[in-house]
Amino acid sequence: xxxxxxxxxxxxxxxxxxxxxxxxxxxxxxxxxxxxxxxxxxxxxxxxxxxxxxxxxxxxxxxxxxxxxxxxxxxxxxxxxxxxxxxxxxxxxxxxxxxxxxxxxxxxxxxxxxxxxxxxxxxxxxxxxxxxxxxxxxxxxxxxxxxxxxxxxxxxxxxxxxxxxxxxxxxxxxxxxxxxxxxxxxxxxxxxxxxxxxxxxxxxxxxxxxxxxxxxxxxxxxxxxxxxxxxxxxxxxxxxxxxxxxxxxxxxxxxxxxxxxxxxxxxxxxxxxxxxxxxxxxxxxxxxxxxxxxxxxxxxxxxxxxxxxxxxxxxxxxxxxxxxxxxxxxxxxxxxxxxxxxxxxxxxxxxxxxxxxxxxxxxxxxxxxxxxxxxxxxxxxxxxxxxxxxxxxxxxxxxxxxxxxxxxxxxxxxxxxxxxxxxxxxxxxxxxxxxxxxxxxxxxxxxxxxxxxxxxxxxxxxxxxxxxxxxxxxxxxxxxxxxxxxxxxxxxxxxxxxxxxxxxxxxxxxxxxx
Length: 514
Description:
Subcellular location: Membrane
Organism: Polytolypa hystricis (strain UAMH7299)
Structural class: mainly alpha
Shape: globular
Helix content: 55-70%
Number of domains: 1
Order of helices and strands: HHHHHHHHHHHHHHHHHHHH
Number of strands: 0
GO molecular function: transmembrane transporter activity
Oligomer: single chain
Largest sheet: none
Keywords: Membrane, Transmembrane, Transmembrane helix, Transport
CATH topology: Growth Hormone, Chain: A
Distance between the termini: 38 Å
Strand content: under 5%
CATH architecture: Up-down Bundle
Protein name: Major facilitator superfamily (MFS) profile domain-containing protein
């Protein structure tokens, strides 16, 4: 970068070592801005065009990666409709443990993944894990006993631990805070149940004379599709705007500079223990951690037992597969609705989450109170239950908006995913075989969890408001007004300050989204 008099300058907080090598303390975006040409600011129309380009190329890749990972995971529930439990001799709570073993693997795998994701390109590491979990799905077709299924599910969970933290980092590195909730809804849309239901219905028509069991064909199809896609995105998915193949140099510049107002950074591969400690002592981390546990206990139960509950209402396996498809539609609609409202209703994300939690709570009450012979009422209640995905997606956006510093984001997202895994571990265990087909314990647990989510989100809201009041009179030295000089050109010195890889605690004037 050339200074005002033509001499070369370094971005702030990027001192030279004695040997001439730069010690990178700032975000990689600051290094990029310091070494690239400057361009005139974007017009609103040009910025909209750039965002649309990101939406049409980046979001579909993230969406299919997350969706196929979920399809691999939820295929267990529909495989159970076609004799998996009987063929592998899963008795009593053994099938429930087949559901719980995956999040146990995620808890174990999250720690090395969190470390490795910090040192390797995020997208490449994510896609490498995707190749791994797709291979586990393929191998499940070869299982002859329950122990081999449990081992593969454990490994699948360890590899899938990266999905939510990795994709959350990528979304936060391409979009502004207010743009993140609807993109989260798109990327994490629960279409997996629709895809899995369709595939389950399709394999249900395979004749009994076929050489393999029906559930084996399900895993072979799901695993093959997921593996092929994983290889493609390993090549194509960018880690940041700096290496997005579909952006020109000017578009890369603008894709980075428009994120300066986030104050959360994009990429920094230098591990900072101070930021890691800050993530651990931040009360926001643990409120969202407990929220993730509570909102995902119902998720874990429904993934493992949702198809079985529908089947126990008197439907055939093929009918149960079809009736399970609208659950994904309900999850997706709830995610879009909650995210759209949260994006438009500035400063009310916590309140939107609280309102969204009330819908699945009503579903729990309907299923628990209505007689099992009331098939229509039971189905309405079950579909309402799947709207839990709305508050979960908005919860993800709170972590993205309110956490700055690359190491801190990495550690916090990992802790939150462990909460997700713990919830999914507990969920199947609330469905006791002795309570079949009503599974009253499972639905009572769901109701308790939704009310717990409401309480935790209210606490998060109060904490964010309190923290904002404390810093009201402490403006940051870098503001959005510093981004453009009086002559209309970008002020790269101030922009690199915005990418100084400081945490939200370290930035005076950082405003928390409530």
